[in-house]
Design goal:
single chain; mainly alpha; Serine Threonine Protein Phosphatase 5, Tetratricopeptide repeat; two-stranded antiparallel sheet; elongated
Amino acid sequence: MRPKLLASTAVLTAVTTLCASARADDAPAGGEDKRPTAALAACASGDVTKGISILGELYAETRNPSYVFNQGRCYQKNNKLDEARSSFTEYLRIGTSEPPEDLQRAQGFIKEIDDALARQRASQPAPVLATPAQPDGEGRARMLRTTSIVLAGVGVAAVAAGVVMSLKVKSTNDSINQQYSQPYVTNEAQLEKQISDGKTYQTWQWVGYGIGVAALAGAVTTFVLSGHFAAGAGAEHPAVSVTPTASADGVGGVVRLQF
């Protein structure tokens, strides 16, 4: 059996408790390899990057699994638990011929790490789900007033479109009546197109008036609900009435507001 170079028990206990270092016949020709000692010193002083780099270099040269074990201890002693667990897991994978006691130690360290990670997760506060802020009284009133303004704009635009369509209906009817007043129709295709256009204008006039009246009624309602007219405790409540109107020339609506 080939001998292994071991650090002193006091150093292993106080610093990093590394497992067996490189085998004696892995030492470079001409003298003892100082790199295991340098790796031990780096890990003990908190220079994890340097220590891990040296140990990785030694493993690449010798394929000695104990260097991977030592990487796990270096990580563990410097509280890099996820990296330590990965190193110990890799050691168990490649170190099938390692001493049974070292394999048991690696398994024990993995259990220690899992327990520590579980305690860390348990101590972390549960994530707080952000809930959308509910609008306060003033915010709700402001939102209702904004909605009222938008609806009023839509209502005015829709009524205006209805008026335009009404004018087009009247103009088309006048043109059709003028052609029928002649002894005979000179252009039947044009007459049919005018009749078709007149029906389309008539449909859109009703749509415009209907949307306009509904939007204006909604504008008044939301404006009142916003509390803009609210006064003292003894003040009278505003009264709102919307009366649709219809005639042969079109439809509309009358909005009455008392406050």
